[in-house]
Amino acid sequence: MPNGSLDSILFHEKGSMSKVLEWKERYQIALGTARGLSYLHEKCRDRIIHCDVKPENILLDADLCPKVVHFGLAKLVGRDIGQVLTTMRVTREYLAPEWNSGVPITAKADVYSYGMMLFEFVSGRRNSVPPDDGQVRFFPTWAANTTSEDGNVLSLLDPKLKGNADIEEVIRVIKIAFETVL
Q1: Its membrane topology, per UniProt (predicted)?
Q2: 52, 63, 158, 166: which one is catalytic?
């Protein structure tokens, strides 16, 4: 893919695009990723649970259209079966709670991972990097504390966007992120 992975662009790693992903681009990538996951979960003949949804596994074409890739950990689940038992092999920062509890995994595990990515879309920071105060904490908890301190959900917004974002869309994305992970 000409634009590489989402993480290299979103987090400006070596060899990636030098431009900042504007809000409109982030929002379209978030929507496209959601459509891809919806296809895997609902439209395929056999339901597919990806089991490793993260920015590294979202590739972007020339038009920044996202493609969900890396199905090495994916599980095929028949239409009449909605869950699967599997061992934990996912990236910890995007890990749904059910992975730790030993219960069967459903498509909701992918939705949880997607919600963690939404926080990254908004904040422009990895969910595994400690906040400025250096304290390690659960990323959604940090996000909730950040927004409750001043009552402004926009305090999560990536400063590189410099007010260049549709506020209603940002709020919608933050709400979805909170609903999927908390």
Answers
A1: Single-pass membrane protein
A2: 52
